[in-house]
User: Fold these one by one.
Assistant:
Number 1:
Amino acid sequence: DVDGFVPVSRYYAEVMMQRLGLDERRVHVVYGGIDLAGYEPAKKAPPVPTIGYLARMCPVKGLHLLVDAFVRLKSSDRFWNAKLHVIGAVTRADEPYVAQQRQKLQAAGVACDAEFFVNVDLQQKQDLLKSLSVLSVPATYGEAFGLYLIEALACGVPFVQPRHGAFGEL
């Protein structure tokens, strides 16, 4: 009884066609978008290199990978002054994982250069995006779309992502 299926990326279309045995003629990709109100590039670049993360703070979104990369980056002469802004939702189940990431930053001596912004509203998210030099959410699975990347681009923030899922399309 279904005339068509509307996935948010070509990647996800292929996943669902395989899983459900769908005929390609019934699948029509329509990429997601956002209301651009409030999304605009920052007036000037951040005073220091600032790496951002914008997603739920959980293992499958790869926050631990970004924290590890940040710790390595901070040991570089070139990025000694880099900052990390971790923005996103935290559920009760995520709290131990987030505490581990904070402890990792503390043990490496870089916790003072990392800030966590939990469960922010739209205005806060837009302002924080404008404070970034680059965004990375190194998801460990094939993400269907990654709306946070569209939000970053709308603020003029480039992103660095794994080469899987829908990220290549974006």
Number 2:
Amino acid sequence: ERKCVHLAASLDEHGGELVPPRSLGYDTLVIAVGSITNDFGTQGAAEHCICLDTREQAERFHRQLLGHYMRAHAGEDQQSTISVAIVGAGATGVELAAELHHAARELAAYGLDRIRPEDVHITLIEAGPRVLPALPERISQPVHQTLRDLGVTVLTDAPVSAVTAEGLHTRDGNFVPASLKVW
């Protein structure tokens, strides 16, 4: 009735009060409780893709990525490239693509250089007409160009129709090979 949210005190790790209890007024209240990834029933997505809804899933992706690097560094993997396909060019997909580019450079600097940064092929796949579809086009355009400048392949208007162990098929008939697939 009063359009007011009452917040408990914020505490530090020792239980000391950082900010006392308080109340905040509002005109409109939006409660965002999070979500889980929707693969829209795409054939093979649940079996072959990693979602990033939980810490455990993110850690699984991290382990798999490092596994590719470690096998290549030990000479056990004859493949000289790592192909990563990311489905969804929202904020998470865009950030992941940029961070993977950065990680490839960092891993090479730490001596895992049998796979050079330019041998990490990152493809960002978006069903809609542009990256960052929830943001204004004046933001998505330069982000798209920055991703391209980093060497990320960006596919728009490319809904994924099926996922296999080898990669992803788009509705327009293209195939994106990928050893690691993130939805």
Number 3:
Amino acid sequence: MHSEIIEEIQFASEDVLLKGYLHWPSTTHPPCVIGSHGLLSDKDSPKQIALAKHCNAHHMAYFRFDHRGCGESKAPFDTVTSLTARCTDLLAASKMLRSRGDLSSHLGLFGSSMGGSVCLAVARELSADAIVTWAAPLRSTDLVSQHTKTTVDSNSPFEKHPFDILDSIAGLQHILIVHGDADETVPLSHAHEIYEHVSEPKNLLVFPQSDHRMGDLSDQKVFVKESTLWFKSFLIDNKS
């Protein structure tokens, strides 16, 4: 039985030092999935840790890291957080991983909430082979604060740095879009709009009564299983 191998990695994104963990499968030169966490989350979210283990079981590496200002990537959150900055972080992570020489060139992207927006925004530049998003917003103006139940307030990074990624997603392929129909932060309509504008192969999976955090454990299990199979189908089964 394969013993879990997790490599701690530090890398630079502009002038910020970021930290992450690379989960290795038992196979050599595997494809890799990179995870991008949500606005107020970090690399240690249960979804990412579970997804890393399942990807390893299917012969894929998984890299989870903290964006600048989050977790172990120390920086002032309020001043460094924007969609553009997080896209720069993800691009830096991909460049670092692809320069190693011990991973294949096939790349998957997983993004949760704002992380999903980040993945969709850079997918074309990274020539990503497969993408999975959970509760990804297309634009910041529609988001609802979980605390006030109103649109994002002046303390939100989105007030200073609003975003709209619709123009970035046209024609993207190999995308699995997952959303809960009881999401209190990102409207379900965003998932349908993403699905409408991306190209085949694509799939939309909606969890009934699931909230923004995907709190139901049974939903989490289905999500991890379907996401892993999606990545496997394009990073291993169909790779050239």
